[in-house]
Design brief:
Number of helices: 6
Structural class: alpha/beta
Shape: globular
Length: about 170
Amino acid sequence: MGWVIKMNKIELLSPAGNMERLKIALLYGADAVYIGGEAFSLRANARNFSLEDMREGIRYAHEHGVRVHVTANIIAHNNDLDAAGDYFEELKTAGPDALIISDPGIFMLAREILPDTDIHISTQSNSTNYGTFNFWHDAGAKRVVCARELSLDEIRQLRQRIHPDMEIEAFVHG
């Protein structure tokens, strides 16, 4: 589960591993959910959403005023890039609100194929300093998910040194 503070508003972002969990997250007040597809997610071996399930889940969430972020957070090898491009072409029909990405090559593909979709940088990219956050902002990312080990004080320091439009997300455990 993650929290994002926007102009002093906290957004509740909840994982949704399947349609049942997506509906439960909405029932309990999630502002947004994140889901994985059958490929390109670090939890690809988990039971994730098929493309058809994604379309249905995104439609359902949007009908309830909830945003959907799709993970594509693998660290890609050369042979992943063509298939990732095909995957992003298919995602156009599903209409996610954002993609959660770790890999710069995957990031560049997503920016090219889905230019109007927000890109969030995954916690898997292990972003720990303002230079990295500013790099991702300049590349076109809307949000960076902090490395999990950052303290609240370190996150406050980031906020003071990064572009004011860059959103920060932090995981909350427990």
